[in-house]
């Protein structure tokens, strides 16, 4: 055993980072519409404004005047076309209608085909969350390698590996459960 101090993996940090991936997934799921208008459905959409990617709610006022309509009152007239383009390219499946600086987003009734499409989008969001969780796991395993090189015993390393894997499995299961719930919500007529 060397004189170097063995630095054990920080499970709290790994947990916090995996929880971050889960909260990001929940925010993305909230943006998926299920037939009703919601201001949160355009939260993940960003606009190229003033040389930076900016959330829509920072370039205009987002309102839900009726159950099937979202409006965005863009503050800077020069950004109206950029906001419109960002919404069209976002994959929300909504065609914006512009009236001066107000962009109206009529929310169409979801048909069976669109519901299936949205479940695939939800699946993509879930896969991104799984990848983020696996990347955190990989960081933990890298920390273990460094600790082994610093003199950590193989038994200790195995215990840490099992704990990191258990943490990962729990978060992946949470992603799968959240996806299953969201897909059921989307397919519900």
UniProtKB/TrEMBL annotation:
This is Ribosome-recycling factor. It is found in: Cytoplasm. SUPFAM superfamilies: Ribosome recycling factor, RRF. GO terms for molecular function: ribosomal large subunit binding. It comes from Candidatus Rhodobacter oscarellae. HAMAP family: RRF. GO terms for biological process: cytoplasmic translational termination. The keyword Nucleus does not apply. InterPro entries: Ribosome_recyc_fac, Ribosome_recyc_fac_dom, RRF_sf. CDD domains: RRF. Responsible for the release of ribosomes from messenger RNA at the termination of protein biosynthesis. May increase the efficiency of translation by recycling ribosomes from one round of translation to another. The keyword NADP does not apply. One of its GO terms (cellular component) is cytosol. PANTHER family: MITOCHONDRIAL RIBOSOME RECYCLING FACTOR PSEUDO 1, RIBOSOME RECYCLING FACTOR. Keywords: Cytoplasm, Protein biosynthesis.
């Amino acid at each position: 055993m060397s004189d170097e101090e063995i630095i054990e993996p920080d499970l709290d940090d790994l947990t916090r980072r995996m929880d971050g991936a889960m909260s990001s997934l929940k925010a993305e799921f909230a943006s998926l519409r299920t037939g009703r208008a919601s201001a949160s459905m355009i939260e993940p959409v960003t606009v190229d404004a003033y040389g930076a990617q900016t959330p829509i709610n920072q370039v205009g006022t987002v309102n839900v005047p009726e159950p099937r309509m979202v409006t965005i009152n863009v503050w800077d007239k020069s950004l109206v076309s950029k906001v419109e383009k960002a919404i069209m390219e976002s994959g929300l499946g909504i065609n914006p209608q512009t009236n001066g600086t107000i962009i109206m987003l009529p929310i169409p009734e979801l048909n069976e085909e669109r519901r299936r499409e949205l479940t695939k989008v939800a699946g993509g969001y879930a896969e991104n969350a799984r990848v983020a969780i696996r990347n955190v796991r990989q960081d933990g395993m890298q920390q273990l390698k460094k600790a082994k090189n610093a003199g950590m015993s193989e038994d200790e390393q195995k215990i840490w590996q099992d704990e990191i894997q258990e943490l990962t499995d729990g978060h992946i299961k949470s992603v799968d459960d959240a996806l299953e719930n969201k897909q059921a919500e989307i397919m519900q007529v």
